[in-house]
Specification:
- The complex is a heterodimer of chains A (211) and B (362).
- Chain A is α/β, with parallel strands linked by helices and 211 residues long.
- Chain A has a single domain, classed as P-loop containing nucleotide triphosphate hydrolases (Rossmann fold, 3-Layer(aba) Sandwich).
- Chain A has helices at 42-49, 72-81, 98-107, 113-126, 142-154, 172-187; strands at residues 2-9, 19-26, 31-35, 57-62, 65-66, 83-86, 160-164, 191-195, 207-210.
- In chain A, the strands form two sheets. A five-stranded parallel β-sheet of chain A has the order 6-7-8-3-9, sandwiched between helices. In chain A, strands 2-1-4-5 form a four-stranded antiparallel β-sheet, covered by helices on one side.
- In chain A, helix 5 (142-154) packs parallel to helix 6.
- Chain B contains ten helices and eleven strands.
- Chain B has helices spanning 2-13, 15-52, 73-78, 139-142, 203-213, 228-270, 272-280, 285-319, 325-351, 355-359; strands spanning 57-61, 83-89, 93-97, 107-113, 120-124, 131-135, 149-153, 156-166, 177-179, 192-197, 223-225.
- A six-stranded mixed barrel of chain B has the order 3-4-9-6-8-7.
- The chains are: A alpha/beta (211), B alpha+beta (362).
- Chains A and B meet through helix 2 and helix 3 of A and helix 1, helix 7, helix 8 and helix 10 of B.
- The structure holds adenosine-5'-diphosphate (ADP) and magnesium ion.
Chain lengths: 211, 362
C-alpha cells in the first residue's frame, strides 16, 4: 500500500509546481494507471513514489509511515528492498551481462546470491529472454532490454512496482508481454503503478488517475 | 563483500582509468624508491661505514710509559655505564719461531688484558696464562702452517696454541701475537686501552668518566682519543640527507594525489548514468562512495605492488643495497592511502548527484 495526500512537487523553489494537492491511494494487489498529456507530471509522480524525488509538501505513506521525510539512507533502503522501478528506456548497465543486470535488482538489498541467481534465471525464462544470459545489453533488441529491466525490478519481489511508460518504445507483441508481467506482479500482491499516455491500456487497470 | 567484487568489475570495465591510476601510483612508488629510497640506502651505508670506522671506540694511550697506566684499569673501566667492552694491550716485544731462532722473521707480541671481545675470533682453544695466539697475518711471518709453535724473544718464551682473526677497531692486531696475561697481573703496565661504548652519543660522557676511573700514576698525562669528529659527521650526514628526502617525498605524494584525483574524476563523470542507475535501484550514498574507492583501490594496489618491485630493483642497481623493510612497506602503504584519499572528492561528487536528472528521458 502506497498513498500520497496533499502532495505537491516543484523542481525549483521558484518554478511553477508540477504536482499540486494530489491525494491518491495505490492499493496493494491492484494496478493503477496514471494518464495525461505529455509534460503533465506522470514521470515526476512516479519518481516521487519511487523515492527518487522528495515531495515539496504533503505526505507519502508507505505501509503507514511517512517516507517523504526519512533520511536518504533509509529511502535508499526502501528502494533497494521494496520498490521495483521500470524506466521508459531500460537503463541497463551496458558493460555487464544480461544476468548480471538482473542480479543488480537484488544487489543493494543484499539478497542471497545463489537464491537471486536461480530466481533471475526463472524470470528470464518466463520473459523468453533466457537464451544466452551472458550477452551484453548492446546485443539484444529494445523489447528484450525492457523485459530484462522488468526481470531486474521483479527480482526483489517488490511490494511496490512502478513503471514509467514501460511500453512506450515497444512493438505490440513486446508490449503485451510487459503488461502480462505487470498483471502477474499485481496478482502476487504488489501495488502496481503504470504511467502511460496510451488510454487503451486503462482496461488493464483497476484504477485510473488523470493528471 | 558483493560491493568489493562489484568495484573490481567496475575497475575492469574502465580499463583506461584503472591503468592510468595504477601507473601513477606505480610511478609514485618508483620515484620515492629511486630518490628517497636511494638516499635512505645511501644514508644507511654512510652511517654504517662511519660506525665501522669506530664512532663508538675510545682509545686511551700511554705511549711512552709516562702516565703509569695499570692493567687493573680494565676492570675499573668495564663498570662505567654505557661501556660494552674494555681491552688492554701491553708493550710490544719481538718474537720469533723458536725452531728457526734468529733466522726466523720477527713479529710483534703483546700481552693482552681483559676478556677477548667478539671482534677477535679465536680458532683453536683459548690460551691459558703464558700461552699465545697468532694473528691471521702473522702466521706466514712466523713460518708455520698451523699456529702450534714455540715463540721466543727477549725475556719471552711462550707456546702458541691457536690463531685469531681481528676486526675493527682491533683489526691491526692481525699482524701480531697476543699473549694471555699472567694470573696476577694488576701491576702490569699498559700501552693502550680500547673502550667500546654502546652508542656513539655516549662517547664524550664516557671519555670524561674514563679520566676519573682509570688506574694510573699520572692520569692527566694519558692521551684519550675520542672519535669526536666522526660523531659530529655522523649526525650531520644523517640529518641533512634525511631532511631533503622528506621534502621530496611530500612533493611526489602531492603530484600523485592530483593526478589520481583528476583520473578518478574523469572516470566518475564518464559513468554518471551508471551511478544514477545504482542510486535509483537502491544503492546508498556510502555504497557509491565505497564503489569508487574500491575501483581506485584495486588500481592503486596493482600499481603499488608493481612500482615497489620496479623501484626496489632500480635502488638495488644504483645503491647496491635495499632500504629497510619498514621503509618499503611504509612507502607502498603510503602510495595506496594517497590514491584512496585522491578518490574521495570524486566519490562524494558521484554520491551526491541527482539520479533523476541523469536518467530522465526528455
Ligand atoms: N529537472 C527538471 N527541472 C525543471 N523542470 C522539469 C524537470 N524535469 C521535468 N520538468 C518539467 O516538469 C513537467 C513534468 O514533466 P514529466 O514529469 O516528465 O511529465 P510527463 O512524464 O507527464 O511527460 C514538465 O513541464 C517538465 O518540463
Ligand atoms: Mg514521462
Amino acid at each position: 500500500m502506497i498513498a500520497v495526500s496533499e502532495l505537491a512537487f516543484s523542481y525549483h523553489s521558484n518554478a511553477p509546481p508540477v504536482l499540486t494537492d494530489l491525494s491518491v491511494a495505490f492499493p496493494a494487489g491492484d494496478t493503477t494507471v496514471v494518464t495525461g498529456p505529455s509534460g503533465c507530471g506522470k514521470s515526476t509522480l512516479l519518481y516521487v513514489l519511487g523515492l527518487m524525488l522528495r515531495p515539496t509538501a504533503g505526505r507519502l505513506e508507505i505501509n503507514g509511515a511517512d517516507a517523504a521525510t526519512l533520511p536518504d539512507a533509509e529511502r535508499s533502503g526502501l528502494r533497494a528492498e521494496r520498490i521495483g522501478f521500470v524506466f521508459q528506456d531500460a537503463v541497463l548497465d551496458p558493460t555487464r551481462t544480461i544476468i548480471d543486470n538482473v542480479l543488480e535488482g537484488g544487489l543493494y538489498a543484499g539478497i542471497n546470491p545463489s537464491t537471486a541467481r536461480s530466481r533471475a534465471l526463472d524470470l528470464l525464462r518466463w520473459f523468453g529472454v533466457e537464451e544466452r544470459p551472458n550477452r551484453r545489453p548492446g546485443e539484444i533488441s529494445g523489447g528484450q532490454a525492457q523485459r530484462v529491466a522488468l526481470c531486474r525490478a521483479l527480482l526483489k519481489q517488490p511490494s511496490i512496482l512502478l513503471a514509467d511508460e514501460p511500453t512506450g518504445n515497444l512493438d505490440r507483441a513486446s508490449a503485451d508481454i510487459v503488461w502480462q508481467a505487470l498483471a502477474v506482479a499485481r496478482d502476487e500482491g504488489a501495488a502496481v503503478v503504470v504511467a502511460t499516455h496510451d488510454l487503451s491500456r486503462s482496461v488493464e487497470a483497476q484504477h485510473t488517475v488523470r493528471l | 563483500m558483493a560491493l568489493v567484487s562489484e568495484g573490481a568489475a567496475i575497475a575492469r570495465s574502465q580499463l583506461v582509468a584503472t591503468t592510468v591510476t595504477a601507473l601513477v601510483v606505480a610511478a609514485v612508488c618508483g620515484v620515492i624508491f629511486a630518490t628517497v629510497g636511494q638516499s635512505a640506502a645511501t644514508v644507511a651505508k654512510v652511517l654504517a661505514s662511519i660506525d665501522e670506522a669506530g664512532t663508538r671506540t675510545i682509545v686511551v694511550r700511554d705511549a711512552s710509559d709516562e702516565a703509569g697506566l695499570r692493567a687493573d684499569s680494565v676492570n675499573a673501566l668495564s663498570s662505567i655505564d654505557g661501556v660494552v667492552w674494555v681491552f688492554g694491550l701491553g708493550q710490544a716485544t719481538d718474537v720469533r719461531n723458536a725452531d728457526l731462532g734468529l733466522a726466523g722473521q720477527a713479529v710483534p707480541a703483546r700481552r693482552y688484558y681483559g676478556d677477548l671481545p667478539a671482534e677477535i675470533q679465536v680458532s683453536g682453544r683459548l690460551p691459558r696464562s703464558g700461552e699465545a695466539l697468532i694473528g691471521s697475518e702473522a702466521i706466514g711471518a712466523v713460518g708455520v702452517a698451523s699456529p702450534a709453535v714455540g715463540l721466543v724473544g727477549p725475556g719471552t718464551d711462550v707456546a702458541a696454541v691457536g690463531g685469531f682473526q681481528a676486526q675493527a677497531p682491533l683489526a691491526f692486531l692481525s699482524r701480531s701475537v697476543l699473549i694471555a696475561p699472567r694470573i696476577s697481573a694488576s701491576d702490569d703496565r699498559l700501552r693502550e686501552l680500547y673502550v667500546v661504548v654502546d652508542r656513539a652519543e655516549l662517547v664524550a660522557q664516557v671519555a670524561t668518566a674514563i679520566r676519573l676511573a682509570v688506574h694510573a700514576e699520572a692520569p692527566q698525562r694519558l692521551a684519550i682519543e675520542t672519535p669526536r669528529l666522526l660523531v659530529d659527521l655522523r649526525s650531520a650526514v644523517g640529518g641533512e640527507l634525511i631532511g631533503s628526502a622528506r621534502q621530496l617525498l611530500l612533493i611526489v605524494l602531492a603530484v600523485g594525489l592530483l593526478l589520481v584525483t583528476a583520473t578518478t574524476a574523469g572516470a566518475v563523470s564518464a559513468r554518471r548514468r551508471d551511478f544514477g542507475r545504482r542510486r535509483a535501484l537502491g544503492a546508498t550514498r556510502s555504497a557509491v562512495v565505497l564503489l569508487v574507492l574500491i575501483q581506485t583501490g584495486v588500481a592503486a594496489l596493482i600499481g603499488s605492488v608493481a612500482g615497489t618491485v620496479v623501484g626496489l630493483l632500480a635502488v638495488l642497481r644504483l645503491a647496491g643495497s635495499l632500504p629497510d623493510p619498514a621503509f618499503i612497506l611504509g612507502v607502498s602503504v603510503l602510495a595506496l592511502l594517497m590514491a584512496l584519499a585522491a578518490g574521495v572528492p570524486p566519490a562524494l561528487l558521484a554520491a551526491f548527484r541527482d539520479p533523476v536528472r541523469i536518467l530522465r528521458v526528455p
